[in-house]
Automatic annotation (TrEMBL):
Belongs to the thioredoxin family. DsbA subfamily. This is Thioredoxin domain-containing protein. The keyword Ribonucleoprotein does not apply. Residues 171-314 form the Thioredoxin domain. Keywords: Disulfide bond, Oxidoreductase, Redox-active center, Signal.
Amino acid sequence: MYPMFASRRSLWKRALLTAALLGAGLGLSGLGVAQAQVGQLAAPLLAQPTFKDAKKAAGGVYLLPDGLVVQLNERGGYLLSATVTAPFSAQSTVSVSGGTATVQATTPPSADKAKAAAVGGVVGVLSGYGDGLAQPLAGLLTQPDALARLPLGINIDATPFMISAQTQGKLLRLSIAPAQINPAAFGKGAGVHVLAPKKAAKQPVVLRVYSDFQCPYCQQFEAQTLPALVGQLPDDVQIEFHQFPLESIHPLARPAAEASECAEQQGKFWPFKEALFADRAWLSGNPNVAFIAQAGKLGLNVEAFKSCLAERGGKAAVDAGLAEAASLGLNSTPTVFVNGYRAQNPYDAAGLLRMIDFARVAALAPAGSLKPVLFPAPLAPKP
């Protein structure tokens, strides 16, 4: 018997899959970077054996030989999301007392274990992770704790995807879509620097880069990835730089970030940012000397810049950037988002361009067509 409260989703969203993965000797990080299918062009997925031998019906529905039904949500050639449906007879009982739901599951029959394995296999194909996701997911779907909760629905954070699963009668429905952060969660004020699209756009695609001036990987992104990307960027892409100095491991990252904010006060953030990543002399000796010299080269009012450094005029903006990164749960740099989608490999310029195309298509999709169904706690106690 297990109590179910309003916080059920937050407790189970990651814990269930984590437990299954750990049981299989893997952690979430063990999934690595997949050549994901959901969130990319649909054609390569449809060429795979799983779908090659399937019967196609209307509405993007595919009937697989093992009795599973897969519905693919395509738009503009991209696969936005997918739903897998399978016969599933494991039963649970649900009772309510004092606003709290308790559930109890029966032991799943062997047929259900086979269906869970089949569902896991299809999700492995849909995600591009193969057995790395298929096996732990199949194990999760037959765990007593998960079985007990399936009638109410469970949500699983399998970054870069969100997976939801629920039993309805004698059917198991599982959906998968790229995980997405609500655009309202991203900062828009202090600590955020914006390069507008080349042409005005009603719905620009936003490339957000959370960066640390001392971070060598951020320098790699600035020196290699960004130049390759900028040369091919579509006209509707907006670039944002978000301050995220990792002070605990990069002691000079904050002084550099604050200096860049002082340059911003004179309208020179972008050239100052590019100069600090290109010329690393400020990492040796007194960084302020190098910052002031760079300000002079860029034609800033040096006295005003020196006063800003001395008074820490950029501190509030950097603090705001750190607060934003903390609210998003970020812990590494560079972290890159395209709209609300986090890039798994921020150094892959070609991959980022594909993400930009996908994000543009996804932004035009009808409301609710992209995300999997997320199940709130329907029997939560009233406040």
